[in-house]
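Our working data are protein records whose layout never changes between entries. Instead of coordinates, the fold is spelled out as a row of discrete tokens. Here is such a record, shown just as it appears in the course material:
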Amino acid sequence: MTEEKKYGGYLKKYMTSVSTCYFPFDCKFTKHVKTKLYEANRCLYVIRSLRKEGYSQKDIDHLFKAIALPKITYGLPVYGASASDLNAVQCFLKRCHKICL
């Protein structure tokens, strides 16, 4: 089921109750990238908390690949066309690499 709403220059499309995609009228996906990075950052908080509780590095890597990485990489070829958006994603991944090692 798909529901569409217009607000603030964006067409917000609800695909399921879990995922939301932002389709801007000017074809720039900066808001969508920022939203996905925010969601992935929340996943990193959970992973850091579990690491402090004594989870092994193998478990941490598995959790990162299962919950944080898909938040960023899903649809990246579509909305990652601008250099600034790709730079933001790359900086986030570098930070993840530092945290997980």
